[in-house]
Each structure stands twice: as structure tokens, then as C-alpha cells.
Amino acid sequence: MPGYSFRAIEKKWQAHWEETGLYKWDPDSPKPRFYLLTMFPYPSGDLHIGHWYVLSPTDAYARFKRMQGYNVFFPIGFDAFGLPAENAAIKRGVHPHAWTYRNIENMRRQMRSMGASFAWEHEVVTCDPEYYRWNQWFFLQFYKRGLAYKKFAPVDWCPTCNTTLAREQVVGENRVCERCDTPVIKKELDQWFFKITAYADELLDFSGLEWPERVLAMQRNWIGRSEGVQFRFQVDGREDTFEVFTTRIDTIYGVSFVVLAPEHPLVERITAPERRAEVEAYRHKAARQSEVERLSTEKVRDGVFTGAYAVHPLTGERLPIWIADYVLVTYGTGAIMGVPGHDERDFDFARRYRLPIRVVVAPPGWQGGELDAAYVDEGTLVNSGPFSGLPSDVARERLADEIERRGIGRRAVQYRMRDWLISRQRYWGTPIPIVYCDRCGTVPVPEDQLPVLLPEDAEFLPTGESPLKHHEGFLHTTCPQCGGPAQRETDTMDTFVDSSWYWYRYLDPHKDDAPFDVERARRWTPVDQYTGGVEHAVMHLLYSRFFTRVLRDMGLVDHAEPFPRLFNQGIVLGPDGHRMSKSRGNVIDPDDLVEHYGADVVRGYLMFMRPWDQGGPWQPGGIDGVANFLNRVWRVAVDEEPAEGDVPVAAAAEAEVLGAAPFGERELRKLTHRTIKKVTEDLAEFHFNTAIAAMMEFSRELARARRTALGRTPAWREAVEALTLLLAPICPHITEEIWHRLGHEDSVHVQPWPKYDPALIVDDTVEIVVQLNGRVRERLEVPAGLDREALLRTVQADPRVQALLSGKTVRKAVAVPGRLVNFVV
What we know:
Blueprint: H1 6-20, E1 33-38, H2 49-67, E2 71-73, E3 77-78, H3 83-92, H4 96-113, E4 124-125, H5 129-144, E5 148-158, E6 163-164, E7 170-171, E8 176-177, E9 185-194, H6 200-203, H7 213-223, E10 225-235, E11 241-246, E12 257-260, H8 266-270, H9 276-287, H10 291-295, E13 303-311, E14 318-324, E15 335-338, H11 344-353, E16 361-362, E17 380-381, H12 392-406, E18 409-415, E19 420-421, E20 423-424, E21 434-437, E22 441-444, H13 472-475, E23 476-478, E24 485-488, E25 492-493, H14 502-505, H15 518-524, E26 529-532, H16 540-553, E27 566-568, E28 572-573, H17 590-597, H18 599-608, E29 616-617, H19 623-638, H20 665-684, H21 688-705, H22 714-727, H23 732-741, E30 765-772, E31 775-783, H24 788-796, H25 799-805, E32 812-816, E33 820-824
Parallel strand pairs: 1-2, 1-26, 3-4, 12-14, 26-27, 28-29, 30-33
Antiparallel strand pairs: 5-6, 5-9, 7-8, 9-19, 10-11, 10-13, 10-18, 12-15, 13-14, 16-17, 20-25, 21-22, 21-24, 23-24, 30-31, 32-33
């Protein structure tokens, strides 16, 4: 028989699918819809094997659903704005646009080489003005609805480069600029925000979502809803006040100090002259720390006394006002009441600075002594004036009533989540469509003047400062309202804006009069299945849920949740156990593997090597096993040997055991239908590894039978065609070739998914145990489905049982259908 070549087959069928438009999407097909979405990649240059681990199983699932009769929409695009392109412009003198599109073209080639069945004609590229024009349109709609606003907020700032830094540009324990090693500081800049907190309560409603519980927990924690009381402290001897929020108003009588965030605007006004130098030094130190560092549980709680005092609102006691970096101005009110007896951080702080520690909620068995640690649970109030003796839950309500009665506070709800800061002091992002006019103030760009385009002739400075600030043609414009001189906003949008609505644009990516086709979106969204990494749990996924709710309120979509069903795949690590990165030198290039083994082998191994929701290091040792498997499938189905040198496997590893098959036609049909059932159920749940394992076992049995009389029966033909169909989503090229060599003209990928016969997955016989006086003495194969009387008759008629009972008197016989018969003798 003539040989074959995996790579030749793959290229042949990829070209054929492209020419015939096999995967072209018809949105008006009468088939039931299925929108399958995978998180689109950033065009970093090359796909590594980790990208294949994300994309190829999702592609297999798309193929599976098509064969099940669904009209599958499976688009792809590129999340193309971002800092790496700008860094390339600075380091290599390559314009971000050229760098990005060169990478996109390479990644398109690599995706096609894996045999991906994407709806390529619906591709979106977020750095294309055709796309980011609608980012700007959405910004204007948010602005009109009061959901886009500007305020001062801290950023990481390099005073030498005179620019803001992204998180990844701040390096080392000493937090220095990656370009010049200057210590980074925090600086307040006027920046744009989206008011995601307006939807905080709604975003806590996860009803109807089939998401991993850890993702839901991360979003709950990120939003962080707390119910409590917000009230004022008066600064002693001044008219200044500040507010604190607490969920434990029952501990208010235990306050012995208060703490302001170092950045709190009140600090400068209230600091005593003799304390100013120490306070300023501490503020400077705090400004160099990240929020993660400041909130670390391992960090020593330190601070500085301002020299000012606050007045306790219920007792009138003077309380020292401190500043400490574990209080953040961006969280809550930027101030806290210090209750060391009942808060672990406050306890450590008070111990360090010898501040009073008062017990106002009695621990069980408390006899009035000092505490060795903060008591944070509920209990009975003590040392709390008229509220002593009340349980905590009752005291909270009474004290909240008292605060409100005195007019110094109110019951309130607070969220850990803050509004979404979308400003980036970068070039390679969506320009924010705002101009500033001395006469008219802040003016939105009219919709008919969109898009505000990025200038193509921007000059990139070695410091990383945004070239938009110095580009005269971009910066200077005319006011849309008065026609006078104005300046454009030079900040660009966070790239998470790009990914917060892209799946709607896929539906009609070249529509020029709206961001997407509203009627088609109502028919095709929400997305039926979303796949991607858990690392996006509280950024992309949360922002997308927020965006969708705003679009709903604008009347553009009729649902609140964009992705009712989410699956998180794991991460393939480098062989060294670390995340793959070029800097580590641990990236596995799929092009080399494809050239050596073929795409089907690589796809199959990625889906076989571990459960898809689990990550782990790349282990190349098992890939030959998948190559052996596909060689065996080929021999079973086509009855010829692979071409010499095509797939490097050891022939001895696949030596077949020839001879009589150990089963007949009915047994073969039962094996076929059990495999259909197993693979169908596994693919439906993304259990690719166990589906492949079942097909491997199936192919071994077929290999044993192919040169026997069984290999010329209808049951054999059914088995071989079933194996080909079951394997088609995972290994699309070899199965397409096999299907045509079996005599079919249409593509294997448009065939209906095989269905199993329930009658053929039921065992014909069942093993039961025979007991004498409760001890197992024999095991018998009996027909399945026997009732009690029939089972007892069948067992009693067996010669082996008759021999066991010979000479004994049976006093009682107990038969349990399908399990056992026990004789009491």
C-alpha cells in the first residue's frame, strides 16, 4: 500500500477547508445557535505551546458542537493595544502599528497551522480605528450617563523619565524604574474613571451563572460589600472633621486612637509644627510603596503621630490622630477608628506604640484582665456606657440608632471595589474623545467627528513619556462648541475597555453606523460558552459584566450577563515549572513540534496530557504515545503503514497481536456504542483526556481484530466509522483523510455526531457472588436482569453450586438481583 504524510495531509485539508468555506458562519441558519467564545490573544509575536493549550481544545469543542447539529459561531481576533508594542517602538525603533500587525500575521499563520475552525471573516483587531472608534463612542455614552468622570488619583511615577509607569515597569524590592533605576514615587494625576461602583450590588448577583466557584468567590471578595455605620470625628480645637466607616459600631467605646491614610488631605492641615518633618518623611516613604506591600499581613504596622487629636463622638475623650500606611486613601473614607482590643492590626499597632487597649466586647470567661490578643468575635458589651450588657448584634442596632439620632452619621454600605481607572499615559491605546477649552471647559468630541485617530508620525522618547503630549498636530485642535483653540486629552484608555465588549463586534465587525448589529446581538447573545484563564477573574470578566449592564440600560442588549457559562483551562508551564516567557528561555515553540509530529499529534497530546482545567509543566515524553495512537488508527481504518520517516515512533511499540478476535460481532457493537457514550459525555464536559483514553482503548481492540473475519463485517465498518467521527474534533486532518478513504465524499466535520443505542450499552451478563452462611464460596456469570426467583433458580441449577450444597440442608436462601445469593445451611 502507498505511504502517507501527516504534514502533507494537514496542508491539503487546510487548503481545501479554506477554499470551500467549510467553517464560514451563516447567522441565519435554521440550526440551533451556539456562540462559542475563547479569550482573544495579545499579538506578542509567536504562539507558544501555552496558546495552543488554550485554543486547540476550544476548537475541538466547536467541532463537536457542529457535529451535534448546532450552528456554531466561533470567532477570533486580537487584543492588540498594549505596552509591549510601545516598548518595541522605543527599543527597536519600530512603530507599534507595524510591530503589532507583523505579529498578528504570524499568529494567523500559526493558528491556521493547528487546523483551527475560526470564523476568520469576523476577526476584530482592537487597534484598528474601525474598532476603537466605538470604544470612543461608548466613552461618550458613559459620559452622558454620568458613568465617566475625572478626578485625581495616584499613579506610579518616575521623576527622572517624567512619566507614569505600568505595574510591570516598577521592578525590584526597592521599586525602581526599569529604564533608569530611579526610585518610583506615587503622584496624584487628574484621570478618567468609569463608575463601576454604580452597579456594585447588581454585580454581586451571580444567579444563573455556571462559573467556577473560585471565580465567583474572587469577584465577591473584589467587590467586597460591607454593611455598617459611617460617622464623623471632630478634630479637637478645629472645625475640621473626617469620617470613618465601621462594620463593628458595637466596639466604638473601645476606640483609643484614630488613623488617617498618609495621603489624606487633612494631614497637611492638622499636623503640628513640631511633628511636620517626621510626618512628611513618613508620607514620602509610604508614597513609594505599592498597595499590595502596604496591606501585606507580614508587614510591620508602623506610623507617625500628627500631634493632633480627635474628639470621641460619644464620650468626648481626646484621641490621638496618627498616620499609617496600612490605611489607604483610595479605600473607604481613608480613615479608621483604632480599636485595638477587637482588631488584630490595631492591636499590633497599639502594642508597638503603647496605646491603650480597652476591652468593650467580653470574650467568653473574661474576668477583667488584659488581652493577649485582639478578641474579634461577638459577645456581650462591657465598658460601653449605657450599652453595656447588650449582645453585639443588638448593640449594633442601638448604637447605629444613637449615631443617627445625634446627626453625626448614618447606616451605610461600603464596597472594597473602586471605580475603574481607565486613564493611561500611553500612546498605543484608544484616545479619550475629550478636548479642553479655556472658554467651555471639558468638551466631549461630537460623535460625527469620531474616531479621534492616533497620529502615525508619533516620535517615541527613550523615557517612555507619551508622544501624544508633544505632538502638535494631535494636541492642538478647535473646540467643538465655540470654535476657539483647545487641547485634546492625551491619556488613552485602559486596554480592558477593548476587551469589555468585543464579542458583540464579532457579530458584524465592519458595521460602520453602530458598534454592533443590535438585532443580531439579540438573537446571538449572550455567549453560550466562554473559555479562558482564571487570571482574568476580577478584571476582564468583571469589567465585561459591568459593560453589558450599561449596554442593557442603553437598550442595546436584552441581558445582563455576557457569559452565562464559563470554563477556566489551566496553564501549561515551561519545563522548569515557571510560566513560559522569552526572558526565561523556557518557551516551547509549537512550530517545531508541528513540523516534527504534525498538528494532529500536537493537538491530541495537549488534550491528553492532563485534565484541561489543570495546569502543569510541559512534559514532552508522552507525545510519542499520541503519535503511536494515530498511527494505529490509520492502520486500523486504512490498512496501510505510515510513510517511512513520517512520524518518529518506535515500530516495536506498536507491534500488533494478530490472530482470532476475542469477541464476536455483538461484543464489537457493544464496545463501539459504549465508546460513543463515553466520548460524548466526556467532550460535553471538556474531559478531553479521558475521551482520548477511551478511544485509545477502542483502537487497541480494533487493531487486534482487523485481520480476523471480524474485520469484514458490518459491525467492523460501524466501529471504524464511529472511531473516525469521535476523533474528528480532536484530530481534524487525519480523520478527514480517513473519512474520504472510507469512500465518503462530504467532510467528516459536517457529519452528524454518532449516537449510541441504549440497548447496546447494557451488560448481557452480570457477575454475582454465591455465599454459604455469609461467606463467599463462588462467583458466577448469570444473565443480566433476572428477578429474585429466576436468579435463585439459575444459581441452584449450576453444577458448581450443587456441589457446594451436596450433603447440606438449606434452611434459607436469600437472593439479591444483580449482586448475590446467600444460602443458610
